[in-house]
Amino acid sequence: MLRRHDGEVSTLVSRRSEQRAPGARSRLCGKGPVPCWRHGARYDARHVGFAGMGRFDGLILDFAGVLTSNMVEVYGRFEEREDLPSGLVLRGWADPEGQELYRRLELGEISQAEWNEGFGALLGVQAENLMGRLLHDLFPAYDVMRVVRDARSAGIRTAVLSNSLGRDPHDPYAPYYLPGNFDVSVLSADHGIRKPGRAIFELVLGQVGVPAERCVFADDTEENLWTAYQLGMTVVHALDEQQTAAVLRELLELPAA
Questions:
Q1: Are 165 and 64 in contact (CB under 8 A)?
Q2: Is 71-134 in the same CATH topology as 2-68+140-252?
Q3: DSSP characters over 128-165
Q4: To which CATH superfamily is domain 2-68+140-252 assigned?
Q5: Composition of the chain by helix, strand, coil, percent to 5
Q6: What's the CATH code, domain 71-134?
C-alpha cells in the first residue's frame, strides 16, 4: 500500500521480511512497480513515518470484495451449494468468453439476465437467477462499513466505485442503500465506462469534489489500483476486512472502532 508524495513513492505499510506470514509477499501492481500490501503481510504502521497525515478528504471504495465478503469465499460457497467442482467460477471468469461477458455487463451492453444465460452456458449450470445464486453468501464487510460511517462523520467525502454487477433480476447493491450511506455512488453500467479505465476514476473524483492527491482508494483488484495510483491517489489493496479497516482508519486518522 503506497501513497504518492511530491513525486516520490513512500511505503505506508511495512512489509518486513521477518515475521512475515507464509506465502505473504510484495507483488507488482498492474503495469508498473507499485508494491501492494497483501493479505498475510505483517501490518505495522508505527514503523514508518506519516508526514503529511491528516490531509485526506476523500475515501473511494470498490464494492464487491471491499464492502462485502471475500469474493473467492463467496464463489466457493456457491460451488458447494450446487455441488460443482471447486474453482469452476474463477476458471469461468478467467476464460476469454467469461471476461468478455463480464466486460459487456459492466459497460451496460448486456443485461444481467443475458449475462446469466451466457455465463451459465459457459459454466454448464442453470442460468435462472445465476447472479443471485452466485452472490447468495455476499454479506457486508461491517468493519469497513463502519469506517465509511466514521469518515462521513469526520467530514470526509465518501464514494463507492463499482464495475456493475447489474441490478435486475438480482440487485446486490440494494441491502447497502448506497445513496444513504455514501456521498457518491458510481456504477460502471450507468456511464458506459469501467475500471481500470482512467475515465471512470476521473468521473468519481469530479463527483466527490476532492483532488486525487487527497483521496484514498481501496480495491481488491490490483489492476484497478494502478490507474488510481497514476492519478495520484493513495491506494490500498484490500483483501482482508479487518486489515483493510485498520489501514483505512490509520490513513484517515479515525479513532479505533
A1: yes
A2: no
A3: TTHHHHHTTT--B-HHHHHHHHHHHHTT-EEEEEE---
A4: HAD superfamily/HAD-like (3.40.50.1000)
A5: 40, 15, 45
A6: 1.10.150
Task: Report the C-alpha gap between 163 and 189 in whole angstroms.
Answer: 7
Per-residue pLDDT of the chain (257 residues; tens, 9 = 90+): 444 333 333 333 322 222 222 222 223 333 344 444 433 333 333 222 233 344 899 999 999 999 999 999 999 999 999 999 999 999 999 999 999 999 999 999 999 999 999 999 999 999 999 999 999 999 999 999 999 999 999 999 999 999 999 999 999 999 999 999 999 999 999 999 999 999 999 999 999 999 999 999 999 999 999 999 999 999 999 999 999 999 999 999 999 98
Tell whether omega for the bond before 196 is within 30 degrees of 0, i.e. cis: yes
Nearest to 160 by CA among 209, 217, 114: 217
- Cα(18)–Cα(212) distance, integer angstroms: 34
Torsion of CA 222, 173, 87, 35, to 10 degrees: 10
Per residue, the 3-state secondary structure of 95-136, as one string, reads CHHHHHHHHHHHHCCCCHHHHHHHHHHHHCCCCCCHHHHHCC
Q: Do residues 226 and 31 make contact, with C-beta atoms less than 8 angstroms apart? A: yes
Q: Give the residue extent of every domain in the chain.
A: 2-68+140-252, 71-134
Coil/strand/helix, residue 252: helix
Q: Is the dihedral of CA 71, 228, 253, 151 positive or negative?
A: negative
